[in-house]
Amino acid sequence: MPIQFPPALRPGQRVAIVSPARKISAAELAPAIATLQGWGLEVVLGETIAGDYHQFAGDDDLRRRDFQQQLDAPGIRAILCARGGYGTARIVDGLDFSRFARQPKWVAGFSDITVLNSHLLALGHASIHGVMPVLFHQTGGEAALESLRRALFGEAALPIAAPAHPLNRPGTATGELVGGNLSLLHTITGTASQASFAGRILFLEDLDEYLYHIDRMMLHLHRSGQLAGLAGLVVGHFSQMRDNAIPFGSAAEETINAYAQLYDFPVGYGFPVGHEADNRALVVGQMARLVVGAAGAQLAIA
Fold first, then answer.
1. What does the record give as the active site (predicted)?
2. Known catalytic residue: 111?
């Protein structure tokens, strides 16, 4: 089915910040709110900002109701997820996207928000995998923030480059972008939130996982047939990986490579996507072109 893209934002429009996962305070968002206002946007804070239920930004019902309210509100033109953590998968089945489908709007976030990125793609809608408000002003994140602004306002995305990497597999691929956090892609396999990888360029990133978990999740993607029809693979940040006292024996990228070698699509490692300051925005569902060569790799809008 053709992917539906929300209208680009314009100055003067309203955007909502909500937290479908971990809790966060309004004070933590103050710098991001100022930035969004500097872009000419009016910012509305959802009920989940300052919500507090154990580690969550309110209980499941509050987080679902808050997100649903922003989905349905005609005056809200984009929903920015304040932060990740854990919890989005607990509420996604209770969301009704029927009004959203009649008036699509941008939904942006990454990490745990991969659930929404994938769910929307499965419904035929594009969304943004990009830096979240709590992380807007990390040192070294200037290009990431600018890439998010360009995506929201409909400006052409700049090509994203990665240096040469010993595990790269040369080649060229064209396809719609799909992917995000490996742990969440693994979690939603077999659910209504699973989007097809077939014929698409998959991008992966993760944080704070044991190295054997990376193998377990990649093995599952392989055994479930999700890697078989890929057009290409983009590997981003695998940050703060952990290991056991008896080492697993391979780094995250080496583990991914062990499964990628079973196929013949091009693979580019070291892209600035994931849990580092330089986390470039990718529009999930957008047609892109991956070129991997001796000098490195580049991902650009097709």
1. 111, 205, 275
2. yes
